[in-house]
Amino acid sequence: MVATKLGVLAGSGPLPARIVQVCLAAGREVFVIAFENETDPKILENVPHMWVPRGKVGATIKRLKAEKCEEVVLAGPVRRPSFAKLKPDIRALKLLGRIRKAAGQGDDAILSLLVAELESENFRVVGADDLLSDVVAPGGIMGDHAPDDGERTDIELGARVAGALGALDVGQAVVVQQGVVLGVEAMEGTDALLKRCRALKREGRGGVLVKLKKPQQERRADLPTIGADTVRHAAEAGLRGIAVEEGQSLILDRGELIAEANRLGLFVVGIKV
Amino acid sequence: MVATKLGVLAGSGPLPARIVQVCLAAGREVFVIAFENETDPKILENVPHMWVPRGKVGATIKRLKAEKCEEVVLAGPVRRPSFAKLKPDIRALKLLGRIRKAAGQGDDAILSLLVAELESENFRVVGADDLLSDVVAPGGIMGDHAPDDGERTDIELGARVAGALGALDVGQAVVVQQGVVLGVEAMEGTDALLKRCRALKREGRGGVLVKLKKPQQERRADLPTIGADTVRHAAEAGLRGIAVEEGQSLILDRGELIAEANRLGLFVVGIKV
Known about the structure:
The structure is a homodimer of 273-residue chains.
Chain A: E1 6-10, H1 15-25, E2 30-34, E3 49-51, H2 57-66, E4 71-75, H3 90-101, H4 107-120, E5 124-126, H5 128-131, E6 140-142, H6 149-167, E7 173-177, E8 180-184, H7 189-200, E9 208-211, E10 225-226, H8 228-236, E11 241-245, E12 250-251, H9 254-264, E13 267-271
Helix pairs in contact in A: 7-8, 8-9
């Protein structure tokens, strides 16, 4: 079976570029839906695409149909715009009505609604992990370094905090050192969290980044992702390592990430939660 | 009854200065225990005090006894030092043993243990609100401005997130706008949280700071505190107002805070959670 053209809803971060690259290399056509302030314009060079304001759900669906995309992937985080900035079309208004009804819905709730909306239009919605091989985090130690007992305790605490935060659709990442939560991710993203923790880290050993899928999160939308850059930023923050969830997070360029972790003396571990 | 000399364990922020000022104005003697990187040295001018490394619990107790302090107040946050930096005396080692036993204990657990330790030495441990009149947050709207429906919904979400975070001893403050959690406080403190939210706030209305006591928090240690500065920082972050917990948070200089909130167009509200 020849794979049909893939619609890529391109959020921020390196994931959309990777998917486009892999598809084109395999001879598969793509069409990219790009979002202002989210999609990296560099990935669009020589790639068929349309810039879409985030409120234009109807226009997105119409174009994906016109492009004959049968399969769609949501790649990388797309933050919910403010209601003030949003100029929703009729389709988006329907979605917004459902969103506003449930008080305190975060980004994840919106992505789930978008997935449902796409499926109702007979698109097949797939996850980034369905398209990229070897991208799903394995369990156990990757690379040469392993967490010690104190770091394991910090990972447990970080997983508990990340679970509670994720259940409230707040964020995916937590930094813990010596039993103290240094920082918690909300809208600022993991890189900003790691940068801030440079100043918050205490003297002495330890410090771990724990990044987990939100418990109720739509699996095909915005799985927690780390790459070699995350390892470098964690090292710059003085941390000892990174824990992600086995089978529920994505690792870009695992070979490069592990080489970088080995070089910098950090552990990377896939845990069960 | 003449009040005996008051021992002030002086954390960061404006609370210790206020307590010292009020006591001295009333003719009550004080002795301040000052902590490096926490206590503002300015408050110690002409005030009897001793600088104590945070690991010296035995030395602290001995000095408070020598000074004949029968009553002690813990004023302002004292962050737990790193285990590496800590040079604990025997007394502190005993406490640390208890702390390490429970994995993932944050700052609050340590303050509770310190209160118990002081009480076991027959000190009377009081809260800042026992010493300062009119400092406890009232319920309802303070000042001229009130949250609208959207902001009330954001306050509810903020209170839910703050409750979950507090239960894990992570932090007290959360910023929410239009149903999205912009930022969550851990070690960086409320001022740094507000500063970061300047860049995270979306266009359009709304944005609230919710600051609550951790559910299990020792009432006499580090109750959530706001002052006129908090109002100014919230305004600089583009927020619409602040919610604190009725009866469970402290408001310094309520008159000045309300005047500042009125001037800047922010609401300040005491809520029940």
